[in-house]
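Q: Give me a backbone?
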Amino acid sequence: MLLPLLIILPLFGAIVVALLPSMVVTPVSSPDDQPHAKQAGEPPSASRFDGPRLIGMLFSLANFFLSLVVLSKFRTDFGGMQLVYNKPWIASLGIHVHLGVDGISLWLVLLSTLIIPVVFLSSLSAIHTRAKEFVVAVLVLESAMIGALLSLDLFLFYVFYELILIPMYFLIGIWGHGRRIYAAVKFVLFTAVGSLLMLVGIIFIYVTHGRLTGNYTFDYMTLSQFIWNQHAQVWLFASFAIAFAIKVPLFPLHTWLPDAHTQAPTSGSVILAAVLLKMGTYGFIRFAIPMFPYGASILAPYLVWLSVIGIVYGALVAYAQRDAKKLVAYSSVSHLGFVMLGVFAMNQEGLQGSIYQMVGHGISTGGLFLVIGILYNRRHTHLLSEFGGLWKKMPLFGAIFMLVMLSSAGLPGLNGFVGEFLVLIGMFKHAIALPSGATIFFTAHPVIITALAATGVIFGALYLLHLFQKLMLGTLSNPDNENITDIRGWDIVAFVPIIVLIVWMGVYPKPFLSRIAPSTVQMTQEFAAKFEASEAHREGLPVRVPELVSTSRPLVTPSVSTSFASIKRRFRLHRNTSPRPLSREDASL
């Protein structure tokens, strides 16, 4: 019952806050909430919790501690789903509330529960209108994010995946600035159109499986045991991949992201960078690749190249920006290109690095948006030309900014380095499986792919150091910055978990990787068995996979990395267990 509570608790908190009278205010003093004169460059007076935010904070903290209970119960020697909850919801349609957590989703769930209290703390100096509605939107968003990460029913996943759009639309459209309505509508249109393609794929799978077996179900664990013919896999993978690629966002489907980030309030940008973008990469790992292995292998070379282009393009465009927030937004395009590269390396190093990079990027880039938000609260501008020499006025802020910036740049010893290093190692070992008829453009050696991707690390250091120099170093030439004040109180508290995780994940990654590894081992082994079955099933009806890696037997980490090209020679099904077409007898499975 732990997993349903993670979804229900913030939703219940949202209902409680929504029922509060608008005039309820419960002041809670900040650690250094002292009266002081208002001057230019000083943040708005907002170092107190109002009633809605206090209740929202309590519910978000309760959910975070509940996620720590999930972590304490998580087994490190088991790669399958844990703490599974499965109850019928709409039994007549085969829809279940089927939830589970494994090493792929565990740290993303904890990141989701951690970032919401940070958002509430940061909102104290940024959100001054409609606080009750703001808290409701954030808590509903938390519930939807966790629900999408835990869902093992395709219908339930789609509901949560789409529910995310509604509160995020309001966060951008109501509490954003500038062209906020344009940015909010663009965000919804891009992601909704992609999601509709995925919905078509889900309905096709549901109807076809039901007609063949008599068992109409959206259950992912059931549907993932069947293999579609090669032609169907390519189209089904494409329908899922487009939806997830938009959410990542993968070049060239990224154009909604800079607008959404730039016009969103700081709270919206932090949630968007920390968790929402990971729904795309998580969707590839959880659903698209395991369900359609042959389709994934066919389209993998193209997605790898788009990832590399995104890494370099995002970094170069970020360097060209004169708006600090837009610079950080484009940095996400570059960093998430590394995540996608690790996903399609499809080996232990690549997958573990990809998942680690998802969590690390959420922490470091979320921290960067907090940094930019603090400056915006004081000066109401993101332009780099408006700043300079701020270290003299904000030394504590500058020290925190430098740590977060170096983390995002991938400095060894900080969290950004581990994920990127594993991804590059994974891709270096990877041999891309080419589709028949591929042009010479897609035949680059993995070493070339790795070398091109590695330039993103260099360019990343370039634009991040450029950002830090423009904001913090040099002379304090702008008179509007003379009275700017250093961070204090709750703003400092908001950075504490970010700083701790930046250092911890960089110095001692073992507790994180040890919980990720069993699930990635199992995923690559099951992928190999499914791919082999797909090789033998060129056309016709879907078939059951004759033998998958058992989730109950001990996992053995392969001594040599599994990749698309090595599947045929390293994993062989028994000749006497050839795939068989689905039958109605399979409905009982």
About this structure: Residues 23-38, 431-443, 547-589 have pLDDT under 50 and may be disordered. Residues 180-213 form the longest helix (34 residues).
